[in-house]
């Protein structure tokens, strides 16, 4: 096991346990099995269609059908990873089963762009066969990165280091106060990225250096207050303020 300590763009200290070659290989095997089933379904459907209609198709049309099928295989091979890592925030079914997640090297959640790049580079990682270059890169690179991770600036970490936080269900700011009314009126300005920042902060507090917790909470709360149009200094305790925003966002 290898740990990686870093600061995010929000100057928050994080400590991760990187995914090793073994766990990543297990995740890849599971994803490959799922893809194998999809390939069989696509191949079986194509064979059935050719068997039924093949006699009525010209040679040129058969070539077109084969080309379309090959394109579908290619899209499936790359689209599978891009699709799941995008909608599942860095996970595929195989990674989820293996307890792994892809994050940016800053510690933040992956974007579609980073997911697209890291998976497009699977072409290189797969060379010359059996993902040889990718496995060699993971084994020898400092942060256990394959070529796709290096280009996309991503890392693969153990999921247990990214546990879901508990955000208070009750508001820390009474709804009938001026601040409560203001937050309710402008909570629509808070988006999923803001909520994820709050969520990730509370999830990682146990892993942060004690002296960094207060500074990070104040920085995040100050940014949220500015986005909501609150005058400078008109916030409660930063942690309580973030919990309030998180609660309101979930209940809106």
Describe this structure in words.
- The structure is a single chain.
- This protein is mainly alpha-helical and 252 residues long.
- It is 60% helix and 9% strand.
- The protein has eleven helices and four strands, in the order E-E-H-H-H-E-H-H-H-H-E-H-H-H-H.
- The strands form two sheets. Strands 1-2 form a two-stranded antiparallel ribbon.
Please give the share of residues in helix.
55-70%
Describe the global form: elongated
Which whole number gives the mean pLDDT?
79
Number of continuous helical runs: 11
Q: Which structural class should the secondary elements be placed in?
A: mainly alpha
Question: How much beta, percentage-wise?
Answer: 5-15%
Say how many strands there are.
4
Unreliable segments of 5+ consecutive residues = 162-170
Q: Note the gap between the termini.
A: 41 Å
Return the string of H and E elements.
EEHHHEHHHHEHHHH
What is the element layout, followed by pairings?
Blueprint: E1 2-7, E2 13-18, H1 21-53, H2 59-87, H3 93-98, E3 100-104, H4 112-120, H5 122-125, H6 132-140, H7 147-152, E4 154-158, H8 178-186, H9 192-204, H10 210-227, H11 238-251
Short overview:
The protein has 252 residues and is mostly helical. The protein has helices spanning 21-53, 59-87, 93-98, 112-120, 122-125, 132-140, 147-152, 178-186, 192-204, 210-227, 238-251, and strands at residues 2-7, 13-18, 100-104, 154-158. Mean pLDDT is 79; it is low at 162-170.
């Amino acid at each position: 096991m290898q740990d990686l300590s870093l600061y995010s763009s929000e100057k928050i200290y994080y400590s991760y346990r990187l995914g090793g070659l073994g766990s990543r290989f297990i995740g890849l095997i599971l994803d490959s099995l799922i893809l194998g089933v999809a390939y069989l379904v696509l191949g079986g459907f194509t064979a059935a269609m050719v068997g039924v209609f093949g006699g009525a198709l010209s040679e040129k049309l058969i070539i077109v059908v084969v080309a379309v099928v090959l394109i579908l295989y290619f899209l499936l091979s790359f689209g599978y990873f891009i699709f799941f890592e995008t909608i599942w925030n860095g996970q595929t079914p195989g990674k989820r089963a293996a307890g792994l997640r892809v994050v940016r090297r800053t510690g933040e959640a992956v974007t579609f762009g980073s997911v697209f790049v890291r998976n497009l580079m699977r072409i290189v990682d797969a060379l010359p066969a059996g993902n040889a270059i990718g496995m060699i890169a993971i084994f020898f690179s400092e942060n256990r990165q394959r070529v796709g991770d290096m280009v996309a600036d991503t890392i693969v970490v153990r999921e247990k280091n990214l546990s879901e936080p508990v955000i208070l269900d009750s508001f820390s700011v009474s709804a009938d106060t001026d601040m409560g009314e203001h937050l309710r009126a402008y909570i629509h300005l808070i988006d999923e990225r803001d909520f994820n920042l709050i969520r990730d902060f509370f999830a990682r507090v146990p892993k942060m250096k004690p002296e960094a917790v207060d500074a990070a909470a104040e920085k995040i709360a100050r940014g949220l207050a500015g986005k909501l149009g609150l005058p400078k200094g008109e916030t409660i305790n930063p942690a309580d303020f973030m919990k309030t925003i998180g609660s309101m966002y979930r209940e809106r």
